Amino acid sequence: MAKAPQLDAKGYRKFGMRDKIAYAAGDFGCNMSFALKGTVQTFWLAYMMLETGLLSILLLIVQIWDAINDPMIGSMIDADRRQYKRGKFKQYIFIGSCGLLVAGAAVFLPFPNAPVVLKATLFILGYIIWDAAYTVANVPYGSMLSLVTEDPGERAQLSTWRSVGSMVGNMLPTIILPMLIWEKQFNADGTPLINEETGVQVELLLGDRVFWVALLMGVLGFIAFQFMLKNITIRIDESSVKAGEEGAKFNVFSAFGNFLKNRPAVGATLAAMGMFLGMNAATTAVTIMFATYFGMASLSGIVQMVGFLPMFLFMPFIKKIVNRFGKKEASVAGTVASLIGGLVMLVFPLIPNKNLSMIVYLVGLVIFGLGMGVYTCVSWALMADAIDYNEWKTGKREEGTVYSLHSFFRKLAQGVGPSVVLLIMGALGYVSDLGTGGQSAATSYNMCWLVAGLYVFSAIMQFVGLALIYNLDKKTMSQMNEELAARKVK
After folding, report:
1. Where does residue 415 rank: exposed (0-12), middle (13-18), buried (19+ CB within 10 A)?
2. Would you say domain 17-238+254-489 falls under CATH 3.30.2010.10?
3. pTM of the model
4. I need a surface site. Which of 120, 209, 259, 487 has the fewest CB within 10 A?
5. pLDDT in tens, the chain (490 residues)
6. Taken in order 390, 396, 397, 400, is the CA torsion positive or negative?
7. Are 20 and 127 in contact (CB under 8 A)?
């Protein structure tokens, strides 16, 4: 006979491991699609061979739409008063997960010989299709964290487990995908094909495989979403989610103005933007660096994951760390470590021996990853607290609107960063028509400086956002939670 679940005071199943694993599965589902985003630039640059300037413009166009799309979806969810059997948030996630079954592959249609105009059209349409499905699933998923539990420690645990799902979801494409899509080239006699300028073996991107991998990841993501929807429990009344006064129309300018008054939301958003402007923008530059400077693009995923594995060290202890030091305090300490790691990376381009240079790069990456560990674990809990702060100061929760504006700026950074980096790559000598095998030694060397600089920039922005702007320290959090609890008793 199955053991009856323990219930809380409201009659819901008590918060526990089932909720944490389910929430992790949700971000795993998101990242079965999102993790391919870094491959988009590489695919269209190294396989479709779009010129860096044109690709930069196309990326900026779709990301601006991507950013605008989020507040629209968020306000739509906030304004939706219909009753759904599974609940409003779960219903939207289900619809988005169905779209992501195939939408992730839409931006990887392999037609390298098509005219430039057709390539540009395929890129924009494919990206918009993917973005629509992803946004419908991701915005309510992120907002749902604050509806699963009110307890700050439990929210931190949910945020940590979301990071677990995110990192596991990132591992598959980060480690395995480069092995599948990059292939070392050989001469007719079986000897390695060497780029005479750089002295490394030429590697070719097999872009047609990306399409099929994206389809497979869509299926895995759909399964993960369904697991989450079945096993997670929403304990906070969804009717408390409002985009404004009852019956009032959503005003994007008013929502934007209110968001800017929400200091913790602004600080957490700036930190997230720094992470994406630095790390995500570096994705293509890192891949090109490994292909042209180290001659090991197929193994680049393994090398990159070495730097991010230290993040897992904090996960078993995150609740104790948060309870003792506070989310803000712990995160700020992490950004200082990340900055140190970024500065170490600035050394590796100066080392002529490439084996030693790689070791120094890895050391810097590990230190950077250690610093990112705490912030990654609590980043979503920081936004959940910012939503509470909005209610504390204005009397309105506005989960969907606050989270979607946060997502707006994140996605803006995700678009602006790669676009700017592509322009910088062009200025540093990268020529798309030559492919990765035809770049000059000077260009491959310049990629090293670009990568190191991007990581330093990322750490600086995170420090400013968390240390100087985000104002929910441990003491303020305690006051806010006490006052919010007292309001609900009345």
Report:
1. buried
2. no
3. 0.73
4. 487
5. 456 567 666 667 888 888 889 999 999 988 888 778 778 888 898 889 888 889 989 988 887 777 677 777 777 777 777 777 777 888 889 988 998 888 888 889 989 889 999 999 999 999 888 888 888 888 888 878 778 887 777 887 887 788 788 878 877 777 888 888 888 888 888 888 888 777 788 888 888 888 888 888 889 999 999 999 998 888 776 655 433 333 344 455 666 777 778 888 899 999 988 888 777 778 788 888 998 898 888 878 777 777 667 666 766 777 787 788 888 888 898 899 999 999 999 999 999 898 899 999 989 988 988 888 778 777 777 888 888 888 887 777 666 677 778 877 887 787 788 888 888 999 999 888 887 888 888 999 999 999 999 999 999 999 999 999 998 888 888 888 888 777 766 5
6. negative
7. no
The tokens describing 178, both together, are: 């480069």
